[in-house]
Amino acid sequence: MGESDLFDSPVIDRRSTPSVANSLAANILGNNAMKSYRKELWFEVPSRRGFVNITRDVDACLRESGVQEGLALVNAMHITASVFINDDESGLHQDYEKWLEKLAPHEPVSGYQHNRTGEDNADAHMKRQVMGREVVVAVTKGKLDFGPWEQIFYGEFDGRRRKRVLVKIVGE
Question: What is the pLDDT of residue 6?
């Protein structure tokens, strides 16, 4: 199948679908007011592990951005922290704590190759991998477009120091 065959595919009718190039051209020419917003949020969890609901912080960023339609990226900027979406229910958070500790127990610290470098946080790297680095939330009519019960959380797996979360919002 040649390149021209891909564009003539009956599955994707390129003649009726606005192209990315047209969207970019409209933005460059000023027909659409594409905005880009960036802010760092800083957290210091006093214990080794914890979950912090950051939905209000992200919502405040969205209001500051002025974006009405677009996407909000929220990502942990440290390899032993996470950002994820779920329910804000304390029992669920306790379940996460137990489950993650079973998957990647902190001790014995000598059980991890990484900890032979002088660190004691190999488990935190693995917990972050399971919980994820970032989330992307749709922005609709100036609001974070969540499903029922969804909230954004910062997950800390090697705390007791300041770490940051990046909020990047793009749209119109």
Answer: 41
